[in-house]
Design brief:
mainly alpha; Four Helix Bundle (Hemerythrin (Met), subunit A); two-stranded antiparallel ribbon; 6 helices; globular; binds S-adenosyl-L-homocysteine
Length: 197
């Protein structure tokens, strides 16, 4: 167990990632939800995400089950992976902090839901998904295993493709022109550095 420094770097980041989510989940779990848009397809995709981003890294780190797919990551990947990991953790924390009481793990509208367009949401509509993509890339760069390395990216990508348009539809239904105007001045996953308004 833990022959490679990069596995240990990933494990530290993984714990920070889970603790961050746990803190915000416990702060919002008692809030009232007025609308929930989660269907069977989203539930199945969420189960895949749990397998790819939780179960497989844990199996690789703590059991020999995935050893047949081990490899050794090169030094350049460790350096880049560590920087991507820290960026992901910062953005993951900031997006939870900026969304505050409006955050939910699935597509939901809270009873006092407000549209957030400040902080990391100022020019990016989906910074939390950007953070998850960055974390998945760090997982691929740091874990010394082909399966556990690429499983988070491979399982989050389909969820993002299905969820993003549904989420934007839900936000337009809820906030109308306010969200449409926000869509015009923001980008999905990357910040907009030049604002024309
Ligand atoms: N897609 C966003 C938020 C993910 S959390 C991101 O990647 O950062 C998902 C929940 O956040 C959704 O159920 C929606 O209710 C809420 N949400 C998404 N964007 C929001 C915004 N700009 N303001 C307030 N709530 C938002």
């Amino acid at each position: 167990m833990f022959e490679h420094t990069s596995d240990i770097i990933f494990l530290v980041g993984f714990v920070v990632y889970i603790v961050t989510r746990g803190i915000y989940a416990s702060r919002t779990k008692s809030l009232e939800t007025v609308e929930k848009r989660v269907d069977a397809m989203e539930r199945v995709l969420l189960v895949f995400v749990m397998i790819g981003s939780l179960l497989l890294p844990i199996l690789y780190l703590f059991t020999p089950l995935l050893n047949f797919a081990n490899h050794v990551v090169p030094d350049w990947a460790i350096w880049i992976g560590a920087v991507v990991l820290m960026t992901a953790l910062w953005l993951f924390w900031r997006s939870h902090a900026d969304l505050g009481q409006n955050w939910s793990p699935t597509l939901e509208i809270r009873s006092e839901h407000r549209l957030v367009t400040c902080g990391v949401y100022r020019t990016m509509r989906h910074p939390m998904y950007t953070a998850i993509f960055l974390f998945s890339i760090a997982q691929a760069l740091l874990l010394n295993n082909w399966i556990a390395g690429f499983s988070a990216f491979a399982t989050f990508f389909p969820l993002y493709v299905v969820r993003r348009p549904r989420e934007e539809r839900m936000m337009i239904d809820q906030f109308g022109e306010e969200y449409e105007a926000y869509m015009k001045r923001s980008r999905r996953l990357f910040p907009r550095f030049k604002t024309n308004k």
